[in-house]
Amino acid sequence: MNAKLLIVADVGILKAYELTITSTGLLHLDQVKTEVLNEAQHSMVEKLDFGTTVNSCNIKLETKRRLVKRIAQSVEELIEKNSEWGVWLAAPKEINYLLTSALLKCVRQRIETNLTLNLVHVDEEELLERFAPPALVKLTKNE
Asked: What letters, b where the CB count within 10 A reaches 16 and e where it falls short, cover 53-68?
């Protein structure tokens, strides 16, 4: 198995990991990027100019759309920067389609595995269980 770029995302949050197999055959996960857009979310809501007739639901939808677009830009940068790695992606069902649709087609085609799960807050062991082939995960746990 070649190195993989494992990306997990949610609205306003992105984490990226490099997944490799060590010389002893164990899986190794290194976090290469964490991006949290919480502060950006608040400033975006303040900057949106919808007039007085727009309800807060529309503001929330527009904020979500913009945050997903920013996450998509970060995903594109990561995938282009690590062009030799395979890509595994996980994002919740609510944003997965929006996120992948916002990616350039050539970037989207590089995604080998796409899970509709929110794995942003899980530990590294669970990430491995969700993405890696079961035989490799068992090997890692036994050693």
From this structure: eeeeeeeeeebbebbb
